[in-house]
Design brief:
heterodimer, A: mainly alpha, 11 helices, 75% helix, B: 337 residues, alpha/beta, 7-stranded mixed sheet
């Protein structure tokens, strides 16, 4: 790696793009971790399926063919049909988009708010810290799914409200992680050095603290996407999330519950889909944690 | 008459200890307790003392990295502590700092170029279009090649990183540089290189150094004047020569006796071993703070705080805070324990 860099700086007149270099470094480390790579490839695959899949599904996900209800998997219906005669394969493919949408957006929303609160609490400390972190403790005191349930019941049952609810319950996790790393980073000498240079608080926070607290964050985010997907599916399963006939996996699972004994495939396929996606995010998260460990930087 | 660049008067730095119910302040760590000194333009003043005696804290208080509890810090005639945030920011370019740990003092996510560029950007020290040139010039000044500009700190050795730290301090054209244990984390051979670099820079840029260190060998090499600190107070201030040849305070003598002999046959140098540990700065001893460990201590030392003063056989500007300087020098006062 270092050899490569020397070459770069020797041959290029303009400084090479630093961001590109650190990404290269990151990917080369990620590549060595087979599990993480597998998770990453799966997720990329899922994203492609989510985007182009709906154009290629054999059936309309909401088209009901009553004569073919609760059919097992066959060549016509790969994953079989549900109690209303809808093609489960098409519904699972369509549900992919929703699932990823919920996972990503709730985490982006939760992480943004959480990081901001955590960094402010950690950097300013004292009263700011006390107020922010005690509020986070209040949120943490509820079991996640229960809190999300309460929020959705207040806001009303809809997919977007599920995203908000899941985001809110992931805020404290991010706030805590960021607060902890911020408190460690803010006492380092390089922060003092820019302070002595006269940098403003905003510059210190966003240019010097934030980049140095992101590693644990990326790991947490990828793990949290998995949690968010599970929670959203759970809410939909309870009828508080996506409303029928939306092809949401949790809701599909809930539908299949009644036919578990005579048509287990109705619940099995959306269930397996949830497991695979959540697992992919989890192993990616674990792999990222290893890849981003600064001690392995060489 | 030399120009007084930095004048510190009655500086106090107490850190509250929170405890008990609702985190009330139960006590204070008196890290720096009422110190007064002046640094003249172009000289190197060293502060020495054992760890925890408050020397780094003194440096940090002057820079307002920790807000001093009390006292006055005048820089070039202006009272630094009266500045508001914005004024302070503007004046920060005049004094810079070089830190001890070269591994912690550089942001691991910034290249050398970004580090130096940002320093100049914050203070607007150099116009944007000239910064690239200035970066190369700075790196050359501290002995780094321009091909190293786009490297990250982890690609450098400790000595090289310290050079980057020096370049960053220089980038805003400061007048005073506080070197907070700037070489103690480096190998001895590298220490010499960095110290020689600092000396060269001092000549070239007319810099003033406040050099915080615990290594007396280094201090002897670089300083013009030396301040000896013990438990938050100054015990002796002298020019380098006087301090090393004619130390007055028993603590200074003990400290100097700890310098390893370079010649094993050397005579007349007896190792003075101090008993016990440095007392806690939370509840420092009354009177002379050194009385708990001083071989010459008497009742007077326990009750009265000695002031920094000069006696007949001391050179101009040499002061020491001991009640029995004259008596010890003449041999009238013998160790009491």
């Amino acid at each position: 790696m270092s050899e490569k860099k020397t070459d770069n700086s020797m041959t290029l007149e303009k400084p090479p793009n630093l961001r590109v270099q650190s990404w290269k470094n990151f990917f080369s480390k990620l590549k060595k971790n087979k599990a993480a790579l597998a998770g990453g490839i799966l997720i990329i695959l899922f994203i492609i399926v989510a985007i182009v899949g709906p154009f290629f599904t054999p059936y309309d996900p909401n088209k009901q063919i009553i004569t073919e209800k609760l059919n097992g998997p066959s060549l016509d219906h790969w994953f079989g049909t549900d109690h209303l005669g809808r093609d489960i394969f098409s519904r699972v493919i369509h549900g992919m988009k929703l699932t990823l949408y919920i996972g990503f957006f709730s985490v982006i929303l939760g992480a943004t708010v959480g990081v901001l609160l955590g960094i402010l609490a950690g950097y300013y400390g004292k009263r700011t810290d006390a107020i922010i972190m005690r509020s986070m403790d209040v949120l943490l005191a509820f079991p996640g799914i229960l809190l999300a349930l309460a929020i959705v019941s207040v806001l009303g049952a809809s997919l977007n409200n599920v995203i908000i609810a899941v985001a809110i319950f992931s805020v404290p996790v991010f706030a805590r992680i960021v607060r902890g790393s911020t408190m460690a980073v803010k006492n380092l000498e390089y922060i003092d050095a820019v302070k002595v240079l006269g940098a403003s608080d905003a510059r210190i926070i966003f240019k010097h603290v934030l980049p140095n607290v992101t590693s644990p964050l990326i790991v947490q985010a990828s793990l949290n996407i998995a949690t968010a997907i599970l929670a959203a599916s759970g809410l939909s399963f309870l009828g508080l999330g996506a409303q029928p006939p939306t092809p949401e996996w949790g809701a599909m699972l809930s539908d299949g519950r009644n036919y578990l004994f005579n048509a287990p495939h109705v619940a099995f396929f959306p269930g397996i889909a949830i497991v695979v996606v959540v697992l992919a995010f989890n192993i990616l998260g674990d792999g990222l944690r290893d890849a981003l460990d600064p001690k392995m930087k060489l | 008459m030399r120009k007084e660049l930095l004048k510190v008067s009655n500086l106090k730095q107490y850190f509250p200890i929170k405890g008990g119910f609702l985190g009330r302040t139960v006590n204070h760590v008196k890290a720096v307790d009422d110190v007064t000194f002046t640094v003249y333009e172009g000289e190197t003043v060293s502060i020495v003392g054992e760890s925890g005696c408050g020397k780094s804290t003194t440096g940090r208080s002057i820079l307002r990295l920790d807000e001093p509890t009390d006292g006055k810090v005048e820089f070039d005639g202006e009272d630094l502590l009266s500045f508001n945030k914005k004024e302070m920011r503007e004046n920060r370019k005049r004094m810079q700092v070089i830190f001890q740990d070269p591994f912690a003092s550089l942001n691991p996510r910034q290249t050398v170029r970004q580090i130096l560029d940002e320093a100049m950007e914050i203070q607007d020290a150099v116009p944007r279009d000239q910064r690239d040139e200035k970066i190369i010039e700075l790196m050359d000044t501290v002995g780094l090649g321009k091909h190293q500009a786009d490297r990250y700190p982890h690609e450098f050795s400790g000595g090289q990183r310290q050079r980057v730290g020096i370049a960053r301090a220089l980038s805003v054209n400061p007048e005073l540089i506080i070197c907070d244990e700037a070489v103690s984390a480096l190998d001895v051979s590298i220490q010499a290189q960095v110290i020689n670099l600092l000396k060269k820079l001092q000549k070239d840029y007319n810099l003033t150094y406040l050099f915080i260190a615990h290594d007396l060998g280094v201090v002897r090499h670089i300083s013009d004047r030396v301040i000896v600190m013990y438990l938050g107070k100054f015990v002796e201030i002298a020019d380098k020569k006087s301090l090393f040849t004619n130390p007055q305070h028993p603590y200074t003598k003990a400290l100097l006796s700890a310098i390893p002999k370079t010649n094993p046959d050397e005579v007349g140098k007896e190792r003075i071993i101090l008993k016990g540990d440095v007392p806690s700065p939370i509840d420092p001893p009354t009177g002379c703070r050194f009385h708990t460990r001083c071989p010459f201590a008497t009742e007077k030392c326990v009750n009265e705080v000695p002031e920094l003063r000069q006696t007949e056989n001391m050179a101009e500007g040499h002061v020491s805070a001991c009640h029995y300087m004259e008596e010890i020098a003449s041999g009238e006062h013998q160790p009491t324990r």
